[in-house]
Design goal:
Length: 223
């Protein structure tokens, strides 16, 4: 964030249709979109506003607070939780991740908790969920099912998934998957002969992968 414009002399901007309040007194510029919200409302929600924003900053359209590394769309999603009756919003997983990031930056503990709860029930790829939980240091037990999914699937981790989760996590999950598959193979070799062959062959391989992976997850999550 900054008190000076990213590009000197830039005067072209538009007022946001929902979050430019005529009685607002905290002007915020995101890209080329100007927001005007209520400083007192923002202060009541964002305890770190005092530390990040001097009292003179954002007092007028000519000297707004500039926010970087965020889009107007994602800032709107954040504001919709501060002004919950102002506009009906639909959130994607990426929107909630952005809200989580903004609420952490501003010290909005209530919104931070809401974002975590919403992310738990929002559909997203396992790799993105793992990356998000690791990035924000969230409760790892909530993503055990994602580890399980990687450990039991037949296809290897893709390049995109590896880049999203990071090399270290991708390597650990690849090792988990290999260990699961080796465990299933060993079990089949040991139990598909003799009097137990019929019982073992009646078990689905997917079920075997599930059981082997569950047995390995406790140790995996300690690592």
């Amino acid at each position: 964030m900054s008190a000076s414009p990213p590009q000197a002399g830039r005067t072209s901007f538009s007022r946001h249709p929902h979050y430019y309040f005529e009685d607002g007194n905290l002007y915020i510029m995101v890209d080329d979109v100007l927001f005007n919200v209520h400083r007192s409302v923002f202060l009541a929600t964002a305890r770190l506003l005092h530390e990040h924003v001097p009292t003179w900053m954002g007092r007028s359209e000519h000297q707004p607070l500039y926010l970087r590394n965020i889009s107007p769309r994602h800032f709107c999603k954040f504001l919709s939780l501060i002004y919950p009756q102002s506009v009906d919003e639909t959130f994607t997983a990426e929107d909630w991740i952005s809200v989580l990031e903004q609420s952490q930056k501003w010290g909005c503990s209530h919104i931070y908790a809401v974002a975590i709860a919403k992310l738990q029930s929002t559909a997203m790829e396992d790799a993105l969920r793992i990356a998000t939980w690791k990035r924000f240091g969230l409760d790892e037990s909530q993503i055990a099912r994602c580890y399980h999914a990687f450990g039991t699937r037949t296809q290897p981790i893709s390049l995109a998934e590896g880049e999203l989760m990071g090399m270290a996590m991708a390597m650990r999950l690849s090792a988990l998957r290999d260990t699961v598959h080796q465990g299933v193979l060993q079990y089949l070799q040991e139990h598909t002969k003799g009097e137990h062959a019929g019982q073992v062959m009646g078990m689905q391989v997917d079920r075997l992968r599930d059981l082997v992976c569950r047995g390995l997850l406790v140790e995996f999550m300690r690592g």
